């Protein structure tokens, strides 16, 4: 399956809102319905987020769709802060498309660079 950056963003926004630093039982089917993706896409992207270190306390259950998560990681919070605004996110995706990489590593790096440039422009720096 190909990585869908919008699904990653939607999942991180969902988990930011629904986690509270205590283990929560989550159901991927319920999440898929709430963020409007099919179950296979959601399951794949949840695994990709976990592999990338975006979750704290992720535990898969015996059930195909249930898992536990404690919170999103500091890395995920930083990435999400960088991509929260729709206009910034669309610009980041445009840069990723232009350079030909939508890997999570590339998206994280591009988002950091875009935010750094926005900060510089606010101070009139080049």
Q: Which terms summarize this structure?
A:
single chain; about 130 residues; mainly alpha; two-stranded antiparallel ribbon; about 10% strand; globular
Task: Please tell me about this protein's structure.
The protein is mainly alpha-helical and 126 residues long. The chain is 62% helix and 11% strand. The protein has helices at residues 5-18, 28-35, 39-51, 74-83, 86-99, 104-122; strands at 24-27, 55-56, 59-60, 66-69, 71-72. Strands 1-4-3 form a three-stranded antiparallel beta sheet. The chain has a two-stranded antiparallel sheet with strand order 2-5. Helix 1 crosses helix 3, helix 1 packs across helix 4 and helix 2 (28-35) packs across helix 3.
Brief write-up:
The protein is mostly helical. Helix content is 62%, strand content 11%.
Oligomer kind: single chain
Number of strands: 5
The whole-angstrom Rg is: 15 Å
Number of helical regions:
6
Low-pLDDT stretches:
none
Give the topology string: H per helix, E per strand: HEHHEEEEHHH
List the helices and strands and how they pair.
Blueprint: H1 5-18, E1 24-27, H2 28-35, H3 39-51, E2 55-56, E3 59-60, E4 66-69, E5 71-72, H4 74-83, H5 86-99, H6 104-122
Antiparallel strand pairs: 1-4, 2-5, 3-4
Helix pairs in contact: 1-3, 1-4, 2-3, 5-6
């Amino acid at each position: 399956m190909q990585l869908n950056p919008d699904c990653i963003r939607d999942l991180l926004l969902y988990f930011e809102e629904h986690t509270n630093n205590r283990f929560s039982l989550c159901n991927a089917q319920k999440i898929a319905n709430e963020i409007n993706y099919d179950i296979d896409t959601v399951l794949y992207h949840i695994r990709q987020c976990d592999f990338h270190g975006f979750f704290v306390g992720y535990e898969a259950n015996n059930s195909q769709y249930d898992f536990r998560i404690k919170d999103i990681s500091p890395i995920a919070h930083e990435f999400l802060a960088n991509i929260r605004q729709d206009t910034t996110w669309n610009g980041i995706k445009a840069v990723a498309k232009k350079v030909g990489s939508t890997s999570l590593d590339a998206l994280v790096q591009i988002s950091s660079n875009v935010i750094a440039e926005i900060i510089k422009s606010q101070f009139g720096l080049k």
